[in-house]
Design a protein that fits this description.
This protein has helices spanning 16-31, 45-49, 64-75, 80-92, 96-107, 120-128, 158-184, 240-248, 265-279, 309-314, 325-334, 347-357, 371-383, 385-399, 403-417; strands spanning 7-11, 35-40, 55-57, 112-116, 133-137, 193-194, 197-198, 203-206, 223-225, 253-256, 283-286, 301-304, 318-321, 338-342, 364-365. It is α/β, with parallel strands linked by helices and 421 residues long. α9 (265-279) links the parallel β10 and β11.
């Protein structure tokens, strides 16, 4: 604890995987005696307030249907740069002036700001208010290093790796320039935008498992590796129909695409059902944002709404998911292998690292997904016991990480270094 409790703002944007870590950090900060406030889109109010974290909404209300429609439009773009541009224009900078003014109002009374690395407008508000900022990195593959390619755990040697990072900087340069131009419309910016992220010049917390995502020796001094920020799940009593299903079909394939899928729910449901039939496996399919469901599903398939991932994944033989940071860590902590269908952003990075560890086969891009491809990946995992054995062996290491505790310690040390009184 610092010599006085701090008032800390958690400023973030994104989907569930971007929100859950900040909730976990907020609860740990409050347990340490600090005052916390969440700053983000109104869509996430219930998530934070359910855990007792005060909330300040920024920008207009957004409905689930709008988010699904945006995701569907993004998936029509093969070029990832164009996907990021669409995300920037239709999510991060939609009504950005209102978001900026709302964020400034919410940040006015805090001591410091802990902000997501793509929270461009929220961090601009913090910067203009002169608030000390701590950055948050959920995917270390975004940090340049001579030891691997951008967002891939592939090492072609220092020369080629550096060249790849240089090329990535060129490809994303126009996008970064456009972000800066938008921020300057808010009164000027001192932020440094590089490769579609904004970080603190003083301290940035890497909220990712060093087991899953390697941390390399050339990491700059202003980065602190804490481990993943895991939100403890409440006690859960499964409903009778789920209990009965698991008694009849132990160790099913679990399918959970979270906020991915957009408006492709019916198509994705059909593909999953056909793949399960081809391999002769039972399955539990979570509905998710896309609303996966089939009224006339076979007896050995159970559709579920909310079930805590920690509990659900432990019941499975493997988990089919999208490779998001939160879902990936939930599978690792459950000690089960993954079959990853990637959609956008940093998901291929996490999928590649799962494969590197020997707890997942090669990933599949959603745009190339069909029942035969998914069935092939499932057979690979289900027919080779080493996937499950390796996942079980790594499980204690993942569960031993104390990410939020280390993050709180780093935040308090930072506060001491800038002499809060």
């Amino acid at each position: 604890m610092t010599h006085r409790p701090l008032h800390i703002a958690l400023s973030t944007v994104g989907s569930t995987g971007d929100i859950q870590p900040f909730i976990a950090l907020g609860k740990t900060l409050m347990a340490a005696g600090h005052q916390v406030k969440a700053i983000t889109h109104p869509f996430h109010r219930d998530r934070f307030e359910a855990h007792g974290i005060p909330f300040h909404g920024c920008g207009p209300e957004v409905e689930l249907e709008e988010l699904n429609a945006l995701l569907s439009r993004m998936l029509l773009r093969v070029n990832p740069i164009k996907q990021l541009r669409m995300l920037m224009e239709e999510a991060f900078f939609e009504d950005f002036r209102q978001y900026f003014e709302d964020a400034k109002a919410g940040l006015a009374d805090v001591d410091l700001v802990v902000g997501h690395m793509v929270d461009f407008v929220g961090q601009e508000a913090a910067s203009q208010l002169g608030k000390p900022r701590i950055g948050v990195v959920l995917a270390p593959g975004a940090i340049p290093t001579q030891y691997n390619f951008p967002m891939l755990p592939v090492d072609w040697g220092p020369r080629w790796n550096k060249f790849a990072w240089w090329v990535m900087g060129i490809l994303m340069g126009r996008l970064d320039h456009d972000i800066i131009a938008r921020l300057r419309m808010l009164g000027g910016t001192q932020q440094h935008i590089s490769r579609y992220h904004t970080l603190s010049p003083d301290l940035n917390l890497i909220a990712s498992s060093p087991i899953l995502t390697p941390i390399y020796p050339d990491l700059p001094d202003q980065f602190n590796v804490t481990g993943a920020w895991i939100l403890p799940e409440p006690s859960f009593t499964p409903p009778p129909d789920l209990v009965a299903f698991l008694e009849k079909y132990p160790r099913p394939v679990v399918v959970s695409f979270g906020s991915m899928g957009g408006e492709k729910g019916p198509e994705l449901t059909k593909t999953v059902l056909e793949a399960l039939e081809k391999v002769g496996a039972a399955g539990i399919i979570q509905s998710g944002y896309a609303g996966l469901f089939e009224e006339n599903a076979p007896e050995n398939v159970h559709f579920a709404e909310y079930v805590p991932h920690g509990w659900l994944f432990e019941q499975g033989s493997c988990v089919v998911h999208h490779g998001g940071a939160g879902t990936t860590m939930a599978a690792c902590r459950a000690g089960v292998p993954s079959v990853v269908v990637t959609f956008i952003a940093d998901q291929p990075y996490f999928a590649s690292n799962l494969r590197r560890l020997g707890i997942a086969p090669k990933m599949t891009w959603f745009r190339w997904l069909n029942a035969d491809v998914l069935a092939e990946r499932l057979r690979e995992v289900l027919n080779q016991p080493t996937f499950f054995q390796t996942a079980q062996q790594l499980r204690p290491q993942f569960r031993a990480e104390k990410g939020t505790e280390r993050a709180v310690e780093a935040i308090e040390n930072f506060a001491r270094s800038i002499n809060f009184n």
